[in-house]
Design brief:
Alpha-Beta Plaits; six-stranded antiparallel beta sheet; alpha+beta; 27% strand
Length: 156
Amino acid sequence: MSATPVMACVALGANLGDAVATVQQALRDVAALPETRLLKASSLYRSAPYEAQGPDFINAVALVYTQLSPLALLHALQALELQCGRERPFKNAPRTLDLDIIFYGDVSLDTPELTLPHPRWQERAFVLQPLAEVWPERVSAVQLAGVKDQAIQRMA
């Protein structure tokens, strides 16, 4: 546990089952994690699979303050994925729920279990668009232009 709360960014996505309900519940579940407080959650976005398969994804981004360590947060998120029936039969398989830590404060980490910041966050419209909504100063126009060809739509 860290001594003071750290702002972390969590990306949420699902493309199996009732993905809208799953992501909405996952936002509530992330907010309810121990020693964690939800600061802001983006709207939901519908995006075409990117380097993945299956139906469109429902995505969102949450900013939280947490006193959980990076690995404790990762393990808590993985437990939420398992509760939703997450399976990993192959790389980028369709999923009931996917929770990724994008940032954990200013921490840089590169271990077999966790890399921070997330190594591909700048390549993905489904991270950049919702992140620009909740933390606009973190996303540049150049970054958004770099993913303009990826199909994504903010949901009403």
